[in-house]
Amino acid sequence: MALRPLKQVAGAVVLLTACLMLTMTPGAASLAQSSQASESRNGDSLNSLVFQYRTPYFTKDLSKNAVWADLKAAGYVSSGQTLKVKSKHGDMAAVMLENGDTPCWIPAWYTTAAAKSVQETSFAYVALKPGTVLALAPGGKLTWAPPKQVEKLVAAAVWKDWTGILISPQAWHTDSSIARPIMLWVRSANIQSRKAIPEGVLSTSSSVSVDLARNVTELLLQQGDAASKVKKLLGEPSFVEHSANLAEGGKPLRIGTTWRYERPNAQFTVSFAADEKLEAWKWILPADPKLQLGLSVDGDYKFCYDFTSFPGTATVPAKPVWRNQGELNDAYLLGATDEVLLVDGDDGGFSGMHEASSIYAVDKASGRKLWQVNAGFGSYSAALDRLRGTAAVYTEYSTAHHRYESWVRELSLKDGHPIWERRLPEGHHMQMYAVKDSVVVYQMPDSVKDDGLLTVLDRATGAQRWTRVLREGQMILHTESEDPNILLQDGLMLQALNPKDGAVAWSVTGRGDIHRDLQTHPYYAYGNIGLPLQPERGAVRWFLIGNEWMLLNTGSGEKLAQYAWSRQEQFETTNEQRYILVQQSGGLSDFDGSKVEKTALYDVIAKRVLFTLSGKATNGMFDADRLYVVLNGLPVAFDREKGTLLWEMPVTTHESASPYTMDEMAKTRYAVLSRYLLLGYGSDMLVLGKQDGQVVGRLSDNQIAFREARYRKGIEGLLNMEGDEIYIGSSNGGLAKYSVKALESQLDQVK
């Protein structure tokens, strides 16, 4: 016989002693036998354990002195998983989770061969005989008497003559974590009565409590479960929609199906891949007590909770005219002609970056994609020419050749056919803009000591018209095809250059110091707000020149209004250019968008403040005698003349777990219908009643997730309306067209 190391022999003696002690407990013989079998299978039980059933783990060791409030899991170990063991004693073992740096505690019985025989059963309410205790595992020594006031006990599994009982944590949620339910065990003979629970604990006809349903989803649903199992446990969903992107970051878009279960104060979504295997779920529950979104369980973002301040938002099954499914996470509308939509596709990468991006065209009548240019992880932009029916597209990276190649291409909107293309010099950061009949290529300086270069191309042929070296302090500003002139800012001077020959068409000079224009800020939408379906608004817009904001006509240079720059103020435009929302932050430092103390509605023509609101007001939209804004993160309506509050969207709390959460709730501007308002809010496209601000519901199959450093993209490109047409982008690649009349008719049917 081969000699075993002393350490292993000692471990065997400890295990044998424990097993002998357990023989004094009913059912312990099976535990001892299965523990020995597990040790034999693993080779050395002090090195690793193989889990035979989904097992709760705890952040601290449990003992007989543990109180009922301690009986909550921090997470679960999946069946078949192997973990390293730090120590074992009694019923418990300390294990190291994958990528964990501190041990967690698990009931060791679930790593024995016996646990393989656990069978999940139909649910039943049970009453226990007096004096019955519940054990952490069948035959275990760790037992507790149920508290006097406890929710109904529900049986969900059996092992031999033991029954598994679902136990909710006494407190489900803290600011930073979710407590998870566990299963305790009783001798089946100690069950006094049973009452069967019908299948489908989340079906519309079920009377099962939300806590019990959470127990079921937490303990009995796992990644990879078949849709048939989910339907048996939860019942028929209330609605079926496209899922969010199920792929990991940097991988191709993978859209599955989401089942949505809705109750008045709780909602649950579960998402399946194309093979009908479970991949993600989310609970949407009332804020407790703070608004908090995307709180993951076990650190896995695919399984998470939203605690919202407007719970139970019912789905409105309004059907779009069409829905186009893109190939990347986000679809932002860039512009449109009478026949074609131009769309920006973005994979929504971290902090504004991306692994994949695209520009594509969609037929306005049918929703069919006409063509697409893939831009990979490089810089890209597009400029629509509505009169010509073309789009100039700049890409920095070639996805075909897998290398950096900078190109400008003029494409036909109808079929994507190149009218001309031009390769640009490599090794420089480029920006492409457009003006009337010209494409503008701005080679930015590589450093503060280097020169920039302006190159102007004929829009019809791509031929170079002229170039100009740009010295330190000179920069080209963003323009669109409707602009008649190229805009060159040189310190305190703004010049308009004729695109045909570079001659100065007009110039404006400011005074004071040169300040940073924050209109390109990725987290806010300061200054001019673009409206893709109303490009004519861009002919008049604001520019920061020295110590003054100037509202200029870009064709003539005429100054229509002005507003003094302040280091503690920023503003954004409304849908009526005469009025701006001026945000003011406190303290002595520069403007801080997260610390806005008040917002003034300012009339730039009359040069006066109409009224002042406490806090931060954004997304201003006038409609007849009303002003709709998002105030401190909440949709509200004011009388436009008096500034009196007409309504605020009803919420259960004004608190949020993060100072930025409320800022991030509104993802779009308002779309104003005859009787309703649309607003991308939270992760949904909400419908509000215009008269009272009540939440009518969420439009089905429209996901609007938060995208870091893409706030302006969302405000300008996710929700746009013109005439009878509404276009809604999304965070799962969808772009949908709705008829205003048809949508309002469907909304009128909602009870």
From TrEMBL:
- Pfam family for this entry, one: PQQ_2
Q: Does the keyword Signal apply?
A: yes
Q: Which UniProt keywords apply?
A: Signal
Q: Which PROSITE patterns match?
A: PROKAR_LIPOPROTEIN
Q: Domain of life, per the record?
A: Bacteria
- Limits of the Pyrrolo-quinoline quinone repeat domain: 357-508
What Gene3D superfamilies does UniProt report for this protein, alphabetically? YVTN repeat-like/Quinoprotein amine dehydrogenase
Q: Where is the signal peptide?
A: 1-29
Q: Please indicate if the UniProt record lists rRNA-binding as a keyword.
A: no
Under the heading InterPro entries, the entry gives:
PQQ_rpt_dom (IPR002372), Quinoprotein_ADH-like_sf (IPR011047), WD40/YVTN_repeat-like_dom_sf (IPR015943)
What is this protein identified as? Answer: PQQ-binding-like beta-propeller repeat protein
